[in-house]
Amino acid sequence: MQFYDKTTFWGRVKERLWVNGMTVRALSDRLGESYKGMTNRISSNRIPKKKGLVEAIAAELGCSVEYLMTGEHPSQQYGRDIEDLIGKYKRLNEARRKAAQAMLDGLVVQQEAEDDQYKQQHSELFRI
């Protein structure tokens, strides 16, 4: 993973762009913003003042406004490892996504079988 200055709004945006396999140009296109305007904001480290733009950036990047503004994840459900997995998954093409899903499905089935076997072997621990 590349390292970005996560002490700034745009540093956190760049990190999330990398996690999502996106470019600044792709983000600006998706938001309907000019690429030049976006790069000017980034180079001058200006947080967007346009109503709803910070929220739209967060939505496109799959993170909270709180994270972009502060670097904190007060409402984050998952840890950093899950966030990294999601970012990697998003960078996969469709065929590899299907393969990853099949592999995860197999691992879950295996884990459930192992859990059931453990419960059977140690049933005295699970009696109520």
Unreliable stretches (pLDDT < 50, length at least 5) are none
**Please, how many domains?**
2
Number of helical elements: 7
Envelope shape: elongated
Strand percent estimate: under 5%
What Rg do the Cα atoms give?
A: 20 Å
Q: What kind of sheet is the major sheet?
A: none
Oligomer: single chain
Structural class: mainly alpha
Mean pLDDT: 85
| Cα end-to-end separation | 47 Å
Please report the total strand number as a whole number.
0
Give a description of the structure.
By secondary structure, the chain is mainly α. The protein folds into 2 domains: 9-70, lambda repressor-like DNA-binding domains (434 Repressor (Amino-terminal Domain), Orthogonal Bundle), CATH 1.10.260; 92-126. The chain is built from 7 helices and no strands. The radius of gyration is 20 Å and the shape is elongated. The protein starts with 8 loop residues before the first helix and ends in a 7-residue tail after the last helix.
